[in-house]
Design a protein that fits this description.
By secondary structure, this protein is α/β, with parallel strands linked by helices. β1 (4-11) and β2 (15-21) form a beta hairpin. The longest helix has 26 residues, at 309-334. It has a 5-stranded mixed sheet, sandwiched between helices. It has helices at 41-59, 97-105, 114-125, 127-131, 187-190, 192-202, 211-219, 223-247, 262-276, 278-283, 309-334; strands at residues 4-11, 15-21, 29-34, 64-72, 76-77, 82-83, 110-113, 136-141, 145-151, 154-155, 251-255, 299-302. The chain folds into 2 domains: 4-117 and 308-334, ATPase, nucleotide binding domain (Nucleotidyltransferase, domain 5); 133-303, ATPase, nucleotide binding domain (Nucleotidyltransferase, domain 5, 2-Layer Sandwich).
């Protein structure tokens, strides 16, 4: 990427992370500031743009800016860039976040759902690069459950930009109410928030425990804490069954903080998956721990890039869009 750079922004409900980037898996510079939701969305956009201007000023005279990429919680209507009832950004329903940022920055931006960007980074810089795979699905198990699809090296948007909302696959009929308005969504059984809720029900004396602390209890042999993570694995198996039977991709990656407890939920996940998904049974690899992917098999592995994936994807986005535009132009010229 030479003498060029991009700016990436991860717009989260708790923090705003902004970075300058010029290739690889490291940032040139990065900053994290609180997302001041209580002060209103205009103040948040101002904070975001001020951070972008600061990082671009630091690169002035050194590198040429390719563009600014924004990762936003979904659902996000694309290409317009309008938020549609985002659970983690209350009061932002119908907000034209693209127009607000471009007006304040004074330049055009690229914008994507944050989970799509985590998937893009994994395909370009993480597991996709390691295993030579250009089509994959990523589930991020954090406060909620996000997901992104990469097909033939490109983000799959669907018709309105909302493709790949696998966190809202129903895994438990008549289950818990979800922030999306539905019931029994995967997010209600496989997120860190879900782990805490399920643990509070089974072990009320640990009502203030975090998902990490509940995992430690399970690792120490607490049967109730182990049951919580068994339920996480079962819910993931139901969600993955729908994805695997529908998409038949070679690689599904699980990321996010909940994956620290992989050894606690993976056994029940694989056991239930074998029962429910005939496609998985037909394509199960010899080993779930692999150095290289087996041909024509379905692999479910931990994501490689960790918490930086979404921000790396935001930084990659302007480069990806530029490459796509060049390829499209070349194809059009070839057909003239």
């Amino acid at each position: 990427m030479g003498d060029t750079y991009s700016i990436g922004v991860d717009l989260g409900g708790t923090n705003l992370r902004v970075a300058s980037y010029s290739g690889g898996v490291e940032f040139l510079e990065s900053t994290t500031i609180p997302t001041r939701l209580s002060t209103g969305r205009e103040r948040v956009i101002s904070d975001l743009c001020e951070a972008v201007h600061e990082l671009t000023a630091n690169q002035k005279g050194h590198r040429q800016l390719v563009g600014v990429g924004i990762g936003s919680p979904g659902p996000l209507e694309l290409p317009e860039g309008i938020l549609r009832n985002p659970p983690n950004l209350p009061g932002w329903d119908g907000f034209d976040v693209r127009r607000a940022i471009e007006s304040k920055l004074g330049m055009s931006i690229e914008i994507e759902c944050d989970a799509n960007l985590a998937a893009l980074a994994e395909q370009k810089l993480g597991a996709g690069k390691s295993y030579g795979v250009d089509s994959l699905c990523v589930l991020t198990l954090g406060t909620g459950v996000g997901s992104g699809l990469i097909l033939d090296g490109e983000i799959w948007h669907g018709s309105t930009g909302m493709g790949g909302e696998a966190g809202h696959i129903v895994v438990c009929e008549h289950g818990n109410r979800c922030g999306c308005g539905g019931y029994g969504c995967l997010e209600q059984y496989a997120s860190a928030t879900a782990v805490v809720r399920m643990a509070n029900k089974l072990m009320p004396e640990y009502s203030s425990a975090s998902a990490h602390e509940i995992a430690l209890l399970a690792q120490d042999g607490d049967a109730r804490a182990k049951k919580v993570y068994e339920q996480v694995g079962q819910a993931l198996a139901v969600g993955l069954t729908g994805l695997i039977n529908t998409l038949n991709l070679p690689l599904y990656l699980l990321g996010g903080g909940v994956c620290e407890a992989w050894d606690l939920f993976a056994p029940s996940m694989f056991a239930v998956l074998r029962q429910r998904s005939y496609v998985y049974r037909l394509t199960e690899p010899v080993s779930v721990q692999v150095e290289s992917l087996e041909r024509h098999k379905t692999h479910i592995l931990r994501a490689q890039l960790g918490p930086a994936a979404g921000l790396l994807g935001a930084c990659l986005l302007p480069y990806q869009k530029t490459a796509t535009k060049i390829l499209t132009t070349e194809k059009e010229l070839a057909h003239q």
